[in-house]
Task: inverse folding
């Protein structure tokens, strides 16, 4: 748009001494989308364990699967249901992302086998912050290519452009960080620098990627428009190490690659 | 990499030489367009254009990219699904010498880590269009 100046990020501009455009409105324009139907997690397990048909005994699960077109009215898996069940059952590798915030949790699970994955996605990190997590939570189920997995995870956790700053101190009492993840009204420590205060004021999601059987685990703390922090425990402290989104993206690519490449 | 014929308005098209026919061909397209916009405006438009370019496009990052000749620009990254592939796009944008200089690299997700260094090096070598003051 010729001649129109974009809105600037006032804090980032002042902190870095150069004009930096506002990136805060991007996440709202790219919500996590799954093509898959909503199914209770229990029903998904039932489908995976079923042979020729899903047993009559669990009519609620069976009805949910039928509504999702994964089984027929007689309980027989449809073509889509069979593909999901076979991949889920035969999977040798799992990638799980657990996300915590506002006292709630949600998860993204990919069961990988036969060169593809079944993704069972609970409410995304953005939905978690919007209070859209209920129990028991149905999951969105879809078949995905292995190539799609890093992007699905990035979208689900809400990875997005952000100007990033090192915070001081970058080692905080682990119990304090845990309390702040659950409750945004927990006060920022007195010794915090302005970057940490800015980051503290953002919506937080604590998220962790775990892959099995290779046993890789990486934890991040997502702090809204102040970006992502790799986060781990050292003694009774939690480390918050600013990690630019372009590196988090490459972390996700590497995690999926390593999980798939590892011998089962 | 090898240079391919470029359309009008495109300065350079590079694509990987040793590709097999079934592989996505990593490529870089460089354009230079007369512009007096600020880098902040160019970046904002580039990201809005990316979001509108393909359904499900996800913006991943935007960082300041320092360049010895073109000054401080941006490095913007986004990805989208195309069939069973995920196409990853990195776009470098600079406001220099009365031009918007843009380099756009496209590759699939499995090609990102192995092509990062090459594309970044090529971007380092970019210069203002010949005849431009300071080129």
Result:
């Amino acid at each position: 748009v010729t001649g129109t100046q974009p809105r600037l990020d006032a804090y980032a501009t002042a902190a870095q001494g150069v004009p930096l455009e506002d990136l805060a409105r991007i996440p709202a324009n790219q919500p996590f989308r799954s093509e898959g139907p909503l199914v209770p997690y229990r029903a998904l397990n039932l489908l995976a364990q079923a042979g020729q048909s899903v047993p009559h005994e669990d009519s609620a699960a069976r009805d949910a699967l039928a509504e999702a077109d994964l089984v027929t009215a007689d309980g027989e898996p449809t073509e889509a249901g069979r593909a999901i069940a076979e991949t889920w059952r035969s999977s040798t590798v799992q990638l799980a992302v657990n996300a915590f915030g506002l006292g709630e949790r949600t998860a993204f699970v990919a069961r990988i086998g036969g060169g593809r994955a079944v993704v069972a996605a609970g409410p995304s990190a953005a939905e978690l912050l919007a209070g859209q997590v209920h129990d028991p939570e149905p999951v969105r189920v879809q078949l995905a290519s292995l190539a799609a997995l890093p992007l699905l995870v990035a979208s689900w956790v809400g990875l997005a452009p952000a100007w990033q700053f090192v915070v001081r101190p970058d080692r905080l009492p682990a119990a304090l960080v845990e309390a702040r993840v659950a409750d945004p009204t927990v006060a920022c420590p007195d010794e915090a620098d302005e970057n940490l205060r800015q980051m503290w004021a953002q919506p937080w999601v604590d998220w962790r990627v775990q892959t099995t059987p290779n046993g890789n685990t990486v934890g991040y703390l997502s702090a809204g428009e102040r970006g992502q922090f790799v986060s781990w425990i050292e003694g009774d402290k939690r480390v918050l190490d600013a990690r630019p989104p372009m590196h988090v993206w490459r972390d996700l690519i590497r995690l999926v690659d390593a999980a798939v490449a590892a011998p089962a | 990499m090898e240079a391919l014929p470029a359309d009008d308005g495109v300065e350079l098209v590079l694509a990987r030489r040793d590709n097999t026919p079934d592989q996505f061909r990593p490529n870089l397209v460089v354009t230079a367009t007369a512009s007096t916009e600020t880098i902040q405006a160019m970046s904002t438009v580039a990201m809005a254009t990316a979001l509108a370019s393909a359904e499900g496009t996800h913006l991943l990052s935007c960082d300041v990219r320092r360049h010895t000749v073109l000054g401080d620009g941006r490095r913007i990254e986004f990805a989208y699904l195309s069939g069973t592939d995920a196409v990853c796009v990195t776009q470098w944008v600079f406001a220099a010498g009365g031009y918007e200089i843009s380099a756009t690299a496209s590759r699939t997700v499995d090609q990102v880590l192995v092509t990062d260094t090459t594309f970044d090096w090529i971007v380092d070598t970019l210069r203002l269009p010949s005849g431009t003051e300071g080129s």
In short: Chain B touches chain A through 33 residues (CB under 8 Å).
